[in-house]
Each structure stands twice: as C-alpha cells, then as structure tokens.
Amino acid sequence: MGFNEPTRRSVWLFFAFLILSAGAYVTYSRVNVLAGERDGEGAASHAAKGEEERAVSPLVLWQDMLEGNRRFMRGSLEPKSILGRRQMLVKGQHPKIAVLGCADSRVAPELLFDKSLGDLFVVRTAGNITDPIALGSLEYAVEHLHVRTLLVLGHEKCGAVAAAAAGQAMPTLNLDAIVNKITPALRKVENCNDPVELAMRQVIANVHQSAMSIVEDSPILKKATEAHELTITKAVYYLESGEVKRLQ
Ligand SMILES: [Zn+2]
C-alpha cells in the first residue's frame, strides 16, 4: 500500500525530526562530558576521575603544570568555572599534586601553574622548608589523599634564604628556627663573585635540601618514594619572567 503525497511528506518530516533530535542529544551529551572534564562536575564521575588521575604518570602531570606555567608567563590564564568547581568540591578533594612552596606573596602556586580550587595541595612556609607540622600536612596528602607527585618549589630573591645567608641574629626564636633550617644548605654552595648568581645558587641548594629532608624526616614519605608511589620534583620560580624551571 503506497502513501499519498501528504502522508509521505509527514513521514519524511518525522524522520528528519528524529535525526535532528538524535544529533542534538549527542552534541548536548558531548558538551556535558567536556564540561565535566573541565570542571569535574558530578560526584560519581569525579570519584572515577580521581582514580584515573592518580594513575596519570608524574611526567604527564608535570607537563600539564608546565603548560599552565606557560599560560601564566603569557598572562593568558584559562577561564575557570569557580562556582561549578566549588560545588563539586563540597563532597571531597582529589588534588593531583602536592606543593611545598615559599609563603612569599609573589609565589602562589595556583596562579603560577594556572590551576583552580582542588587541583593542588599546597603547604607554604617561609623558605619552603619543613617542620613537623608541614611534614605532617604532606604526609596527609600522600597517605590520605593519595597524591603521587610532590613539588618542592623555591624562588628567586627568597627573603628567607637571603636572611639565612646574611647570618645575622634573628629577633625571635621562631625566625631563628627558619634560618637555622636553611643555613646547612648554604654551606654546600660554591662561592661566586656575582651576587645574583650566588643568591640563586643558595635558593637552589635550599630546594635540594628541603627535598632531601622530606625523605629523611618522614618515614611515610620515604617509604612512598622508595616504593615509587611518590615522585618528588624540584623547581625554582623566576620572578620577572614568571617561569618555573625544573631542577635535576
Ligand atoms: Zn621565599
């Protein structure tokens, strides 16, 4: 039995509607998936994402951090959905990287690496050094949050390192504790006539020492590095260019 002309037109319109609807649905789903990828929307998908991210190699994580740093250097940070991210994080955090950085107001890791809420677990002290509380915080990140990469980040013109290098008496025991922690690193620094170069060598020596003391002073973090469950990365930040350079 054949269709007459109006019926045939209706059938074609119906199929055209079906195809367009399916296309729109696929597009809508993909946009949502992309939004989820970007902002981590949805608790269930986020839990799965947390597992996925922990499996990402330290090298891939570092590449992602470097790309963020390059955006920061150019002054073109990615737009972020702070509201969506904040809501998503109410149920829990899954930071990928822990950072031990300096408290210096110019060296905020989230900005330097173009990251958002929930991306980095940050411990900041003057001179990026550790004491039991800072170490305990890092242990929490590794043991409880399963962070697999820890970045020790020093920076150019660090006041804490400069104070330790100056060797002058500190007015309080608390400030003394900071310079006393940094001073042993400076003894290993080869002298240099260029004061800028010397200061940078001191900063770098302090980063190496901090990374070493994380392992020496924390059995948990030592065990994690020996089991290759934790990678410690060292880097320094340059104030004027905004660049973060990895140390070997
Ligand atoms: Zn500093």
List keywords for this structure.
single chain; 248 residues; alpha/beta; Beta-carbonic Anhydrase, Chain A; 2 domains; 5-stranded mixed β-sheet; binds zinc ion
List the uncertain runs: 13-47
The CATH topology of the largest domain: Beta-carbonic Anhydrase, Chain A
The shape, in one word, is globular
Q: Provide mean pLDDT, rounded.
A: 85
Structural class: alpha/beta
Number of strands: 5
Q: How does this structure look, described?
A:
It is built from ten helices and five strands; from the N terminus they run ααααβαβαβααααββ. A five-stranded mixed beta sheet has the order 2-1-3-4-5, sandwiched between helices. The chain is of the alpha/beta class. The chain is globular, with a radius of gyration of 25 Å. It is 57% helix and 12% strand. Strand 1 (97-102), helix 5 (109-112) and strand 2 (120-125) form a beta-alpha-beta unit. The chain folds into two domains: 1-39; 56-247, Beta-carbonic Anhydrase, Chain A, CATH 3.40.1050.10. Helix 7 (159-166) crosses helix 8 (173-186). The chain has helices at residues 5-39, 43-55, 58-74, 82-88, 109-112, 132-143, 159-166, 173-186, 195-217, 219-226; strands spanning 97-102, 120-125, 149-155, 231-237, 244-247.
List the helices and strands and how they pair.
Layout: H1 5-39, H2 43-55, H3 58-74, H4 82-88, E1 97-102, H5 109-112, E2 120-125, H6 132-143, E3 149-155, H7 159-166, H8 173-186, H9 195-217, H10 219-226, E4 231-237, E5 244-247
Parallel strand pairs: 1-2, 1-3, 3-4
Antiparallel strand pairs: 4-5
Helix pairs in contact: 7-8, 8-9, 9-10
This protein binds zinc ion.
Zinc ion binds at residues 102, 104, 127, 155, 158-160.
